[in-house]
Structures are given as structure tokens and as C-alpha cells.
Amino acid sequence: MTERETLTWDGFGRVGRELAQAIADDGFRPDLILAVARGGLLAAGSISYALDVKRVHLINVEFYTGVDQRLDVPVLLSPVPDAGDLDGASVLIVDDVADTGATLKLVRDFCAGHAATVRTAVIYEKPHSEVRCEYVWARTDKWINFPWSSEPAVTAAPV
What we know:
single chain; transferase; Rossmann fold; alpha/beta; 159 residues; two-stranded parallel ribbon; PRTase-like; 6-stranded mixed β-sheet; PRTase_dom
């Protein structure tokens, strides 16, 4: 079995504040946070509270279909946000991991021409990512077990 990076719930408890501190120390004050669903939802919520940014938007992108299995290209899923909501804004895109970087590139391109400033924050960044994020909690080349996605989906108990 491939060696894996494991983020626990306790570890995640530090992630949002530490990323938010790095963002604040850099002097960046986003007008809104664009959470990449699903992986970036929890991190975006944590960072939004830590930075006291109340405008949190959601963009849903499908790319990974399983462990090390993905579509050929990432795909925006509906509902697609109104890009006009980004006009002139300083936007912080938040996701759980920059693996290939294709998802973040798609979202960053979606913001282009609308947002005044776009920066990215991730929990993990991999060395082969085509997007270099401004804010990274940790770097790894391993597959990551996140506490919210490491267990199988919940199903109804048998009757």
C-alpha cells in the first residue's frame, strides 16, 4: 500500500487559523472566499471565520472519482456561480489540495476578467501542481487521507 499523509480532525483544527494568519500577515484582505466543493468547503468555512469574511461563495468542480482516479479534465457542476458577483472583488479561492492544479486553474480562470485580485489557499500542495498557491499549510507528494473523506459513505441500515 502506498504511504499516505493523514490529516486528523485535531490537525484540521489548526489548519484554518494558521492559513488565516499567513493570509493576514501577508496583508491580503479578501472581499470574498470562493470555496471549491467539496474538498475546500470545511477549510473555506474555517478561514472565513478566522478572517471574519462573511461573503463565502461556492463553486462545485468534479475531477476526482476515487483514490488516484480522475476525469480527463475538471468539470464545473451546476449551479455555476454568477461571475458578476466577483466583479472588482479580491477573491480567495480555497481548496483542500493542489494535486495536479487543474481544478484550481479552472476556478482561477473562471474568476479572470471579473475579480480584481485572485489568490489561492490550500491545506496541501503537491510538488507537481501546475498552480503554485500563495497560501499553503503543508506540502506533500503522498496521497492524503482527510478526516471528512476517509470513511465510506453512510448508507441506510439494513431493515
